[in-house]
Each structure stands twice: as structure tokens, then as C-alpha cells.
């Protein structure tokens, strides 16, 4: 995710752009840049936040009434000055900002290299603008048409804005998959990833739809689709408070991030998984596949929610790859004297990529010769840099302190890793491999269906919001889900909650059960279904209140549970991706009803950079 802003009109463009970029920093903040037209094309870009860009640019020539700006959340290429946007074409005449990922950029780049193009950055975006320029200079079309033709050939997601030294009255924008809003003022136009940079100047906006192109030329706006059909702009009035728009209309970042999961999981799978081709590619670990296949064991180190994703991965790797796995709290691992050898592969999981304990665990394992892989969300983060290789989760910036979409993206990446290894190792039949790919590809839709349960879960939350304790129970793949459910509730509602393997309940937690104890069972239709039904009966016999998360169509558990939440069915190994959704919503609603600060819970931090 990145934030983009454009301005063309009579005002000074730079202050409008910089202020807008600051509003969009929630979308990414590893580097920022602007391009300004004023007889010349002046480009200023800098690694770091928008404030660092401003510090760098403030004494430069900023006079201009036409410009574009970008705040980056790196996907291709590490965050640095060169990879920062805007990117220019080889002629130096075109400048572009881009939010998204061009999946076929490698093929486009190969063709352009053959034609003599050279590239300064590692980004897909620089390839994109040169691809447009190549069409522009080699065909007899204007720039807008060259952009349209290019868009018919690129695969992936984009929100772009382009300006040209040849024509300071022109700005071209387009979107597919990434958001883009056009603001219409008096003799001026704005572009932005959301309306926040625009609303203080005008409340008239056009939200571009996928595969639409906006051409602003000589103070008028034309919208067409990529089939070259001109469309009547649908002008809407924005009537929202600034803060609300920053959260995309949601009350809290956490709720927004919970609801983003169909998209964030989709982004994580995109370009990596194609079930109809039996294709699974994780480019970042390609060179390490043999090493993982032949590892004596896999050690997973992580903290918090990432540790829970690690537990799910343990079950998946052991089941499909037949490699022994151990999951360690990074904070414990680093302070004991673990046995680690060069035949071990360590997977470090971290949303932020900055957690101090996980970093320290990596350096300990590295010093003993192990191979270290990273599963991080933040591109270019310390953990991503400290590992030998890895795969990003591509979940987009997670702002709510309680992790939600990062968890499901981590499991998605780790599942892809395990399936890739299992197929190469031959420990999974081709049929099972293929079925799992199909199922994994269907997860974003199934998560969307699970999110439809929001109103029912809000109703259940009202009943239990004053509870002082909660128990979460699950078996097999759903045991880590129980741990994660309990953690979410503790973190944001301050209700004491424990997650337990359901079968282990009889060795302790059963003593706590009475009519005041809500027990969340994750009891989907898997291989331990019959066993967990018995556990539910044990709780009911002691008058506990049972909230059961079950597979759609279950007829058994509704006869005994107090509340039944039906989620779409999937393969046992993928169920955590779906079963966790109602738990996230339950903890969110309970916390809101208790008046807690959901996005910034007391005593917690998003990224724990101290030991
Ligand atoms: C903090 C956050 C948690 C997160 C944990 C690990 O405790 O509040 O949400 O799970 O750190 O963070 P990481 O960035 O390494 O995944």
C-alpha cells in the first residue's frame, strides 16, 4: 500500500501535495517524493517519512502549479531514495507515481532492456512508466492513448498519476485494484488515494472505478475506460469528518483491518498461487527450497500473535512436509542455550519486522550456523534485512495495535511455503496438493462470508460484555486459534481469557466452569469433531455458557450450545484463517461496549523494540 496525491490548478502544488501525503501516511511511510512541473521537471524524493522529504526539499525550487507526490510502502525494492517515487521515463519527460504491484513487470522489463532501456531502481513502477513511454514514442498516439494501450497489457494492481514535461496542462490517472479519487475544484483538480487530502479544498469528488482512466487537460476532466469508451463522470459530494475518512469510514483501524482481510489475504496470494496451473511461487525463498527440504528440523521464532501463526505453521509443516517443527517464544529462545545447528532452518515471523526479541533470536540462531527465513509484513524492516531470505505477507500497513490481518496473511504465506516444500519433497500427493491450492484460493471469499456474521456477533457480545473471564477451547488446527481468540480479548477488552487445547481442559480449567463462565469452542467439522462435541457436553454438564464456532450446516452442536456461529467450511489446515474471524469481531465488539481504546490498548505497543 502507498499513498498518492496530485494537483493541477492555480495554487502552489507543493503544499497541497505534502499536506495530502501526511494524511495518507497510514498507507505507508518508508519513503516519499514529489514531481513538480515548472518549465523543468523537478523531482525530490527521500527515504523516510513525509517530514524527511520536506526537510530535504524545503530550500529547493518548489514553485509549480502542477505536481504529483507519493508516500511509499515498499513492495518491489527496499525503501531508499532511488526506489522512492515518482519515477521518470528514460527521456526524463514523464513522471509517474504508482500504488500497486505490476505482476508481469519482469517480462516487460526484459523486453525493454532488449530495446536499450536502462533502469535506476528495483521497482516495477519504473518499468511501468518506461513501458508507457515506449508506446508513446513508437506509435502515433497522444500520451493518454499510450497510457490506455499500456494498461491493456499490464497485469496487476495500480493507481497511477502521470505528468509530462511536454504538456503542463495535462495530468493522467488510472486505477485497478488500488483506490483513486479525483477532486473537482474551481479551475483545479486533485488526485488522491482517498478523499482526506482533498476535502479541505472541495467536497466534489469522482471515485474512479477499476480500469478507468481520468484525463485532466486544459482545465477539464474526461473519464474513459480502458476499452476507450468515454464515461460520464459520476460526481459525488463527500460529507465526512476527516478522521472518519482516514479510517476508511470505520470507527476504528482494528475494525477496518478485520474487514480488509478478504483483500489482504488476496494480496498475499496474488501472483504466487494459481491453482488452475498448479502453480505456487514464492520468489523470495526459491534458492532455499532444497535447504528447507533437507533440514533436520524447522525452528519457528516469534512473539504474540505471530507466535500463534507459528503454531498453525507447525501443524501444517509437520502434516504435509514431514519435517519436525518447534515453535519458540523468541524471548525464551534467546535467553536459554538452545541446541541449534547448521542443518536447522529457522523461520522468524513478525508483522512489524522490528520486534527486539525476535531479532535477538535470529542473531543467536545465525551465530550457530542456521539458515534464517523471514515472514514479515513491513518491507525492508530490520528482521527482513537480518534474514537470509523470506516472503513478505503483503497485508498492507496494520495500524490497530491488536494484530488481525497480519495473522491471516502470515498463515497464508506459511501455508504456501509448506505446500511448495511438500510438493517438491513428494510428501503430499498431487491430488491433495491441487485440492489444497484450490481451497487456499477460495479463502478470501470464505473470509468475506465469515465477516457477514458481524451483526450476530455484535448481538452475542452484548450478552457477554460484562464477563470477567473467558475460556477458549479448540483441538488440532483450532487449538492455536483458541490461543489467538483469548489473546485478542485480553489485549483490547482487559477481560481475563485463557486459550487451551480442549482435551486438556479436564486437567485444570474445568474447575473454573460454572454458570458465569463463557466458553468459546472452535468446533468446526474436522477430524476431532466427535471429541470436541464431548468436550462441549462436559462444559454444559457444569452449566458453562457455550459459544460455538461451527461449520455451516452443523446439526449436532446447535442442540447443546447456547450460541452457534456458523462459518464456511474448508480443509482442516486452512480453518484457522476462517475460524479466527468471529473471534476478532467478538473481542472488538466487547471492547467497544466496555468503552476501551480499541486501537491503542493500555500498556501495549504495535511494535516492541525493547527486550
Ligand atoms: C506486540 C503487538 C502484537 C504483536 C507482537 C509481535 O505485542 O502488540 O500485536 O503480535 O508485538 O509483533 P511482530 O511485529 O513481531 O509480529
List the helices and strands and how they pair.
Blueprint: E1 3-8, H1 13-23, E2 31-38, E3 40-47, H2 50-57, E4 66-72, E5 87-88, E6 94-99, H3 105-114, H4 124-138, H5 143-151, E7 158-164, E8 167-176, E9 181-185, E10 188-192, E11 204-207, E12 212-217, E13 220-225, E14 230-231, E15 236-237, H6 242-246, H7 253-259, H8 261-269, E16 273-274, E17 279-280, H9 289-293, E18 297-302, H10 304-321, E19 325-329, H11 330-333, E20 344-350, H12 356-367, E21 371-376, H13 382-386, E22 389-392, H14 405-425, H15 430-451, H16 454-464, E23 469-474, H17 478-493, E24 496-501, E25 518-522, H18 529-541, E26 545-551, E27 563-567, H19 575-593
Parallel strand pairs: 18-19, 18-20, 20-21, 21-22, 23-24, 23-25, 25-26, 26-27
Antiparallel strand pairs: 1-4, 1-10, 2-3, 2-4, 5-6, 6-7, 7-8, 8-12, 9-10, 9-11, 11-15, 12-13, 13-14, 16-17
The protein binds 6-O-phosphono-alpha-D-glucopyranose (G6P).
6-O-phosphono-alpha-D-glucopyranose binds next to α10.
Please explain how this structure is put together.
By secondary structure, the chain is α/β, with parallel strands linked by helices. The chain has 3 domains: 3-243, Aminohydrolase, N-terminal nucleophile (Ntn) domain (Glutamine Phosphoribosylpyrophosphate, subunit 1, domain 1); 249-449, Glucose-6-phosphate isomerase like protein, domain 1 (Rossmann fold, 3-Layer(aba) Sandwich); 452-598, Rossmann fold (3-Layer(aba) Sandwich). The protein contains 19 helices and 27 strands. Strands 3-2-4-1-10-9-11-15 form an 8-stranded antiparallel beta sheet, covered by helices on one side. The chain has a 7-stranded antiparallel beta sheet with strand order 5-6-7-8-12-13-14, covered by helices on one side. A 5-stranded parallel beta sheet has the order 19-18-20-21-22, sandwiched between helices. α3 crosses α4, α14 (405-425) packs antiparallel against α15 and α17 runs parallel beside α19. The radius of gyration is 26 Å and the shape is globular. It binds 6-O-phosphono-alpha-D-glucopyranose (G6P). 6-O-phosphono-alpha-D-glucopyranose binds at residues 303-306, 350-352, 355, 358, 401-403, 604, 606-608.
Amino acid at each position: 500500500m502507498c499513498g498518492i496525491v496530485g494537483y493541477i490548478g492555480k495554487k502552489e502544488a507543493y503544499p497541497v501535495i505534502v499536506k495530502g501525503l501526511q494524511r495518507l501516511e497510514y498507507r505507508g511511510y518508508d519513503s516519499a517524493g514529489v514531481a513538480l512541473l515548472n518549465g523543468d521537471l523537478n523531482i525530490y524524493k527521500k527515504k523516510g517519512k513525509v517530514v524527511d522529504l520536506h526537510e530535504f526539499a524545503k530550500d529547493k525550487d518548489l514553485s509549480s502549479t502542477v505536481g504529483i507526490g507519493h508516500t511509499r510502502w515498499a513492495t518491489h525494492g527496499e525503501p531508499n531514495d532511488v526506489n522512492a517515487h515518482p519515477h521518470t521515463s528514460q527521456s526524463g519527460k514523464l513522471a509517474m507515481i504508482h500504488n500497486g504491484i505490476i505482476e508481469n513487470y519482469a517480462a516487460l522489463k526484459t523486453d525493454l532492456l532488449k530495446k536499450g532501456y536502462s533502469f535506476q531502481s528495483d521497482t516495477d513502477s519504473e518499468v511501468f512508466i518506461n513501458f508507457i513511454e515506449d508506446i508513446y514514442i513508437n506509435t502515433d498516439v497522444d500520451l493518454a492513448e499510450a497510457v490506455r494501450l499500456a494498461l491493456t497489457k499490464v497485469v496487476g494492481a495500480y493507481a497511477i498519476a502521470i505528468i509530462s514535461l511536454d504538456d503542463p496542462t495535462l495530468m493522467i490517472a488510472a486505477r485497478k485494484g488500488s483506490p483513486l479519487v479525483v477532486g473537482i475544484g474551481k479551475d483545479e483538480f486533485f488526485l488522491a488515494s482517498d478523499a482526506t487530502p482533498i476535502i479541505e479544498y472541495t467536497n466534489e469528488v469522482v471515485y474512479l472505478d477499476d480500469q478507468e482512466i481520468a484525463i485532466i487537460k486544459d482545465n477539464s476532466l474526461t473519464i474513459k475506460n480502458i476499452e476507450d469508451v468515454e464515461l460520464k463522470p459520476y460526481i459525488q459530494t463527500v460529507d465526512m469528518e476527516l478522521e472518519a475518512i482516514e479510517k476508511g469510514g470505520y470507527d476504528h483501524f482494528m475494525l477496518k483491518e478485520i474487514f480488509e482481510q478478504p483483500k489482504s489475504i488476496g494480496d498475499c496470494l496474488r501472483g504466487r498461487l494459481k491453482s488452475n496451473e498448479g502453480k505456487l511461487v514464492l520468489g523470495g525463498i526459491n534458492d532455499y527450497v532444497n535447504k528447507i527440504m533437507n533440514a533436520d528440523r524447522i525452528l519457528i521464532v516469534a512473539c504474540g500473535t505471530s507466535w500463534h501463526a507459528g503454531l498453525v505453521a507447525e501443524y501444517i509443516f509437520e502434516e504435509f512436509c514431514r519435517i519436525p517443527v518447534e515453535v519458540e517464544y523468541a524471548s525464551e529462545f534467546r535467553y536459554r542455550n538452545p541446541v541449534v545447528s547448521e542443518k536447522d532452518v529457522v523461520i522468524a515471523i513478525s508483522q512489524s519486522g522490528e520486534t527486539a526479541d525476535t531479532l535477538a533470536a535470529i542473531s543467536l540462531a545465525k551465530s550457530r550456523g542456521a539458515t534464517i527465513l523471514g515472514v514479515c509484513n513491513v518491507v525492508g524492516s530490520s528482521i527482513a534485512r537480518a534474514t537470509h531470505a523470506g516472503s513478505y505477507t503483503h497485508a498492507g500497513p496494520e495500524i490497530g495495535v491488536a494484530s488481525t490481518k497480519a495473522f491471516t496473511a502470515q498463515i497464508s504465506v506459511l501455508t504456501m511455503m509448506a505446500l511448495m516444500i511438500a510438493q517438491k519433497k513428494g510428501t503430499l500427493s498431487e491430488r491433495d496438493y491441487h485440492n489444497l491450492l484450490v481451497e487456499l484460493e477460495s479463502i478470501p471469499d470464505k473470509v468475506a462470508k465469515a465477516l457477514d456474521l458481524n451483526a450476530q456477533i455484535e448481538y452475542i457480545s452484548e450478552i457477554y460484555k460484562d464477563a470477567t473471564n473467558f475460556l477458549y477451547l479448540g483441538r488440532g488446527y483450532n487449538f492455536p486459534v483458541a490461543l489467538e481468540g483469548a489473546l485478542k480479548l485480553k489485549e483490547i477488552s482487559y477481560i481475563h481469557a485463557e486459550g487451551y487445547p480442549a482435551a486438556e481442559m479436564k486437567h485444570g480449567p474445568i474447575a473454573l466452569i460454572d454458570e458465569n463462565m463463557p466458553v468459546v469452542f472452535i468446533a468446526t467439522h474436522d477430524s476431532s469433531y466427535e471429541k470436541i462435541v464431548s468436550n462441549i457436553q462436559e462444559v454444559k454438564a457444569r452449566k458453562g455458557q457455550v459459544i460455538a464456532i461451527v461449520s455451516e450446516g452443523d446439526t449436532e452442536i446447535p442442540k447443546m450450545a447456547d450460541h452457534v456461529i456458523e462459518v464456511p467450511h474448508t480443509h482442516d489446515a486452512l480453518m484457522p484463517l476462517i475460524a479466527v474471524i468471529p473471534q476478532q469481531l467478538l473481542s472488538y465488539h466487547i471492547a467497544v461496549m466496555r468503552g476501551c481504546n480499541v486501537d491503542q490498548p493500555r500498556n501495549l505497543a504495535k511494535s516492541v523494540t525493547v527486550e
